[in-house]
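In this supplementary section we document a worked example of the pipeline. Step one takes a protein sequence of length 407 as its only input; no multiple sequence alignment statistics are reported here. Step two produces a three-dimensional model, which step three serialises into structure tokens for compact storage. The input and output of this example are shown verbatim.
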Amino acid sequence: MNSQKAWILCCFFNFLIACVFGLLMRFMYLFPLDFLNYSFLLHAHSHVAMLGWVYLIVYVLVVHFFIPKEKSLKPIYNRLFWLTEFSVIGMMIAFPIQGYALFSIIFSTIHILLSYVFCRLVWKDISTDKSPSQRLLLLSILFMILSTCGVWCLGPAVSTLGKQNAFYQIAIQFFLHFQFNGWFILAILALFLKQFQNKIDEVKFKKFYFLIIVSTLLTVCFPLRWFIENDFLSYINVLGVLIQLIAFIYFYKMLKPQITVFKNGLNKTAKLVYGLALFSLFLKVVIQLLTIFPNLAEVSHQIRNFVIGFIHLTNLGIITGFLFGILLQNKMLSANSEILKAGMKCFILGYISTEVLLFLQGWFFFFGKGTLSAYFQSILIFSILLVFGLALIMGSFINKKQESISS
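The serialised model returned by step three reads:
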């Protein structure tokens, strides 16, 4: 098995474990398990999903698409990947057992330090074509480094002020904001732009590039507003959200001339997942626009269902949707496999159903209507679909790997 196939399989393994942790959490609402701590499991689920699935699959695709072949074959990339996976497995074991404590913090810190090595390597080895996709990737890496400033503030915040302090919460939100909206989403969009064969309109790209930097920096004020009583932060967020809308209008205009040719080169399954990713991105922009209204901004973080729904929209809809599209388009996943098609349909059905339930339940809470009937049972069943779909996708990949070895 070549290293790239082993890497991708490893990423899917991490994703499956993260989904199983999520499923266990939903199971525990109906059938509490004394030997498992819910909040420890939540930490394990979020860390493995972010750092084991999204970070590592982005690592694989960045090395594949952006690093020249002769440089990407250097042993350092393979060693760095497996060292990073070692830190993920450490988190996978430590978080469910002890939550945020010595070993989980050690493995999380190792992951951050290794991510710095990755940033340095990419910056040094990247091809020097200065294309829009390359500039967007380098920007995403800068945001990743910026996000980790939040993590380094956690230790001093806890030791001096304790976990309940606003500074501790702000440090976490700072990290999450720039990880998701800076590093992950911009890296995914850079990989997506790389799939377009023809030259991208430079003028429109520059406008998008400038506006997305400004909006990403300004919208950090939204989570800060939860812990700092200051209306000025709300106004800055409103400006950031509006600038983000204009940025994505330019993003659409920039790609519009090539969309038909791009679509014609895709198979049915790739079209489906790209469609899901783009629709999820559109929904994310709309939801962020709704936070312009103060009463909705207030409940957006108070109602847990909205928070989880939004995180899953970003992680499963936008990020994973684009990743699946890129993997299918480049035949890293076998689009002709019936197992894969069934797995994708299962996964998408599970994703859409759980999102609808999460947001619907959120609105029920908002209007004081209580809990939806059979809500916990329904969301558990649809979560099983997510895990089952992912297991099928992974199974089709293993099958593809065996075929390519035997052929």
